[in-house]
User: Fold this.
Amino acid sequence: MNFKLETKNLTVKYGEVYGVKDISLAAPHRSVMALIGPSGCGKTTYLRALNRMHDLTRVANVEGEVLFEGKNIYDEDVNPVTVRRKIGMVFQKPTPFPTMSIFDNVVAGLKLVGIKNKTLLNEVCEKALKQAALFEEVKDRLNTAAVSLSGGQQQRLSIARALAVEPEVLLMDEPTSSLDPQATLKIEELIQSLKKDVTIIIITHNMQQAARVSDKTAFFYEGNLIEVGKTKLIFTSPEKKQTEDYITGKFG
Amino acid sequence: MDPENSQLKSKGNFRNKYTDALYKWLGDKIFTFVVVGLGATIILVTLGMALVLFFEGSGALTEFGLFGFIKGTTWDPAVQMVFGAWPFMFGTLVTSALALAISFFPALAVAIFSAEYAPGWLAEIIDNLIKLIAAIPSVVIGIWGIFILAPWLRDSIYEPIFFWTEANYPDMLHILGNPMGYGMATATIVLSLMILPYTTALAKDAIKAVPRDQREASWALGSTRWEVIRMAVLPYARGGIMAGAILSLGRAIGETMAVAMLIGNKNTLPFSIFGAGATMPSVIVNEFREAVESLHLSSLMAIGFVLFLIALIVNLSAAYIQRKLSIGGGQVV
Assistant:
C-alpha cells in the first residue's frame, strides 16, 4: 500500500447529473498532486469526496471507494468526523470565523478536541501562522478580530487554521486564487516544505503553479479523468490532445 | 453606402430620436410620489396615534405628572380617584420577561433542531405546527387556559407547592399567594407558549442565513454536528437570534386578551407568584367600558401612551442589538 489516498471508480452524482464519473486516482505518501481542468470539470466535486464533505449536501451521492491508507472512508464503521480530522481542507474563499480573534481562529480545531494548555496553543498558533506566512504581519494583534484582516491575509489565516490540527492529507481548492503573487509564492514554498510529512492535493487554474509545486498532475474534463502522470511529463509531452490543448491555453 | 457607415448612421438616428425618451421621468415621478406618499402615511399614522394617546392621556399626566403617574402604586377609580401605573407596568414587565426567559431556550432548541437536524419533511411539519400555534387567536388560548390549563396547573402544580410550603416554610406563603389558578404564574406560562413561535421562527431564519462556507470551514476541521453549531452557526446567527428574542418580548408586552382572561385582574400591589395581578393591556381592556370619569379614561389613555413608549424602546433595542451583533462588516473577498 504505497498510496496515502486512493480512489477507485469514484462517481459523484447530484441527483441524475454526474459530477465526476469513474475516477481512479492515487496520491502517494508525501507528495503533491495537482488537479487541473476548466471550470465545471468536476475537480472540486472530486476533492470534496475525499474527506466526505458531500455528506453535508443531501443531493450528492457518492459511489465507489476512497481508500485512506487502504481503508475505505465510506465504510459503515468509519466516522466522517475522524476522517475530516485527518484529511484537512482549505477552501477557495477565506472563511475566518467572524466572531473569533485571529488566535482563536487558528487554534479553533485544537480547542475542539479539548486542548486548553495555553502554552501549547500559543506554540501551535505561532507555528501555523509562520507556516502560512502570516505571523510577521499579525504577531502584535493576535487578539483582534479575524475579519479585520485583508482578504489575502484571511486566506492565509484559513490555511494556518487547517495546518494547526496537523492533518495527514491537505486538500486545497484553489488556495491562492485570492492572494497576491508574493503571498502565493509563500504558500507555494509552504506546500513544498509541508510535503515532508503531508500529502497534498491541490486544485489550481494556474498552470505555472501546478508545474512548480506538484509531483503528479491529473487533468479533468467534463467529469472525466482524461490524463494523469508525472507533472513533468504532463507539461512537456502529454499523451492526449485535450490535455495539450488545455495546458497550452487553446481552451479553458 | 458601405454597411459599416449605414450602421453608424442608424445608430446616430437612434440617439437623436430617443434622447428625449431617456429623460422622460414622468413614470419615475409618479412612482416616487406613490411610494413616498404611502411611506409617509405610515409614519404619520403612527405619529398620530402616539399624539392622540398623549393628548387624551394628558389629563392624567398633568394631574399626577409623568413620573408621578409611572411611579404611582394606587389605582383607585372608585373612591379616591387616584391613578398610578406602576402595578400594571410591574405586571407587564415581570410576566413578559419571565415568559421570554422560559421560552427562549426551548425555542432556540426547536429552531436548531428544525434547521440543522430534522430531515426536510419533519422540519416542514415542525414549522407548520409552530405557525399554527402563532395563528391561534389569543382569545381561544385564553379560554383554553381558563377551562383546562389553569385548573390543571392549580391541582397538580400550584396546590402541592403551596401545601408543601405551608407545612415547611409558612413565612413564605405571602410570596406564593393564593393558588387559585388564575394569576401571574398562569399568565406567564401562557405568554411563554404564545411567544415561542416568534422566537423560534426568527431564530430559525437567523440560523438558516448562516453561509454554507462557514459551516463547511468548521466541518473541515473535524467538528461534530454540535461543534459546528456551537463554533460556526450560533456565533454567526447571534444577532438575529437576540433580535428575535427581543421582538418576542415586544409581543409578550402587548399581548392582551389571553393575559386579561388568565391573570386574575387585581389592581393593587403586592402581586404574588400564584396570586392575581394585572398588566397594562389587561387593565385597559378590563376598564375601558366602565371609565365614565374623564380622569379614569384619561389615565387609561396614559397607560396606553406609556405602553406605546415601552414597545418603541423594545423595538429600537432589537434593531440596535441586531446591528451591533450581526456579522457582515468584515472584509471578505
